Amino acid sequence: MFPKPASGKKGRFAEPTPSAGPFMAPPKNQRRIVTMSCRSARRIGARVVAVCLLAATVHAAPIYVSTTGNDTTGDGAAWGTAYASLTKAISVATAGAEIWVAKGQYNEAATLTVTVDGLSFYGSLNGDEAFPYDMSGRNLDANATTLTVTAANSRVININPSAATGQHRWDGFAIRDANVTNLSGAGMQINNGNVIVANCLFFNNRISVVPPNSYQSGAGLDLYNNADAVTVSDCRFCSNTITNYLAANHDSTGAGIRVRNGAAAVPAVIQRCRFERNYCDARDRTTDLARVLGSALSIGAPDVRVLDCDFVANEARSPKAGLIGGAVYCSRYSTGFTNFYIDRCRFLGNVVAGNGGVGAAIHLNQPRSTIYLNNCYFYGNKSVSSDGVTPRGGHVLGIPVGWNTTSGFIAKHCTFDRNTAGAGGTKYIAWLGGPNSPDTYDNKFYNCIFSGFTNESAAFRIENNGSATVDYALWDESNSARYFSFNNTASAVNTNPVVDTGFALTPGSPDVARGAASQPAIDKAPSAGLSPDVDLYGASRPVDNVLITNGGGAYDIGCHESQEVPVSLSRFAIE
Question: Does the pLDDT at position 71 exceed 70?
């Protein structure tokens, strides 16, 4: 059965299994937005989501590649005379060509380097399709196309066209098992051009960073500075790892994807993707310098959009160092203002472990920047100290504890549930700013749910001159002193709170109860221009429950909008 796409799917997310490294057993019996497990990916080489985009307009017959082909006697003009390798097909391709690749495993001798402009690669074909062909008809499960490279210390794919006027496409491939040292983009590096990556699996790609090297990133996919208008859709990033052995002050970041700090004319879009069990680890135990940042996704470019994605059981571990984010890390290292957009995403069971670690789900380390969060669900994320046990930091959101510099979060209709690491330690749902920050920033949280934080020191830790505005929040904690913890002149405003100590979501599900008059989340929030038009699942907002008296408005608090409206029928109507 095909994995299901993210859009429109409702139901329970399985409670994450505690992390035990990059190859921990996946949670069982999950109703996940994308249902395949990484274990299945290892068995079959590639299982990718079934949302297949139509092929681009075809101007010439494609070049054919098949495991039964021959690079010497074949001419690539038909399946019967196909080439045996993508290396050969690329060597004869001209600008705008399509390359069709039949199912099977292709162990290329060296990196697949693409310098010709506008090439489109389609995998997961049965090997008998007639030209032209509607690519939405492919069976991506049964006809997996797997790409590896046999040369030592080589990435699988390098896209670096001499011109960048055409659009490149890689669609329907499993890109896996690259193992490199001091090299970025082990699975794929995009150096230039407009590129679409769709329906692909990036699995078990590894980077080791050793002296005297300084910085490597993107074990699965690395979007370099000149990459422009890159869209990554319906892909899966699973069990990719970066291991940093350096003792110097250098970062390793983005085991799944790294988006570099180039100023792309058209920002990157990452949509309907799943990031699962990607892992970053700093191995030097003697210094406080080597850092790992954003195990699933590291964003270093402005205005990147992350839409409808899952981040599950990703882990960043740096026992001696700080500034680490378990799933997503945002930083551009620039002087201008930068925005990041994360919409309709789910963060489940991500971990950050380190004495300076904050932000197991999302970490912001960029001056003069704002992360916009809409309709996101945060469940089971945790931040622990270097011992891997003692809770500390921000379990979900974090800004460096050393500075703030007008950076922060604006969140609308998000649900924060059971993000905890147990008793002991100092820990919060969100840790915002640091004691040395000279600037102020008013973090804003509108129409959000904060539940299941009984073991936490407080929901928010706000440092120095920072502040938070929280409006129409649903709390399951009646002690308002546990909502905020302050340092120095930090402050917070908590307006129109909805407090219900009996409120509880089903573990692993953001869905509010349907049709229950006592449900405190339903019809309690206004829009005031703040509410998105759809909820986490893409369903319309608002849906007014006629049996519930509206509190602040017709919108439900949190990321889920109940779609079922009770209707009372009289006996005359029934007759």
Answer: yes
**Residue 436 tokens, joined:** 């040395």
Compare 116 and 281 and report the one with higher pLDDT.
116
Both tokens of 2, joined, read 């095909």
Return the bridge partners of 352, or none. 316, 383
Distances (CA, A) of 179 to 176, 182, 186, 187, 279: 9, 10, 7, 9, 14
Among the ranges given (71-85, 171-185, 194-208, 283-297), the one the predictor scored with the smallest mean pLDDT: 283-297
Token pair for 190: 């995009």
Q: Are 312 and 276 in contact (CB under 8 A)?
A: yes
Q: What is the pLDDT of residue 455?
A: 82
409 - beta bridge partners? 371
What does the alpha-carbon distance between residue 400 and residue 353 come to, in Å, rounded to a whole number?
A: 15
Query: The tokens of 479 are what?
Result: 């002690």
Mapped onto helix, strand or coil, the DSSP state of residue 55 is coil
- Residue 198 · residue 65 · CB < 8 Å: no
Q: Is 573 helix (H, G, I), strand (E, B) or coil?
A: helix
Burial 419-439 (b: 16+ CB within 10 A, else e): bbbeeebebbbbbbbbeebee
The answer to whether 203 and 231 are in contact (CB under 8 A) is: no
Beta strand 145-149 pairing with 174-176:
parallel
41 DSSP assignment? H
Q: Report whether 372 contacts 340 (CB < 8 A).
A: yes
pLDDT value at residue 95: 94
pLDDT at 137: 92
Give the chain's count of helices (H) and strands (E): 3, 48
91-95, 389-393, 429-433, 480-484: the lowest-pLDDT one: 389-393
Indicate the residue type of 331: S
Give the 3-state secondary structure of residue 370: strand
Look up residue 481 and give its DSSP letter: G
Whether 97 shows a pLDDT value over 90: the answer reads: yes
Please give the C-alpha separations between residue 185 and each of 141, 204, 254, 459, 465, in angstroms, as whole numbers: 26, 12, 10, 37, 39
Residue 369 and residue 393 in contact, taking contact as beta carbons nearer than 8 Å: no
- In one-letter notation, the amino acid at residue 237 is F
Q: Which domains does the chain have, with CATH numbers?
A: 38-389 (2.160.20)
What is the secondary structure of 146-202 as a DSSP string?
A: EEEE-STT--SEEE--S--SSEEEEES-EEE--EEES-S-SSEEEEEEEEEEES-EE
318: left (phi over 0), alpha (psi -120 to 50) or beta: beta
Note whether 207 and 241 are within 8 A (CB).
Answer: yes
Handedness of CA 78, 82, 85, 87 (dihedral sign): negative
The set of residues, in sequence order, having a beta carbon less than 8 Å from that of 556 and lying 6+ positions away, is 512, 521, 522, 523, 524, 525, 535, 541, 542, 543, 562
The b-or-e profile of 169-206 (16+ CB within 10 A means b, else e) is bbbbbbbbbbbbbebbbbbbbbbbbbbbbbbbbbbbbb
What share of the chain has pLDDT > 70, as a percent?
A: 77
Residue 520 burial (CB count, 10 A): 21
State the average pLDDT over residues 49-77.
Answer: 75
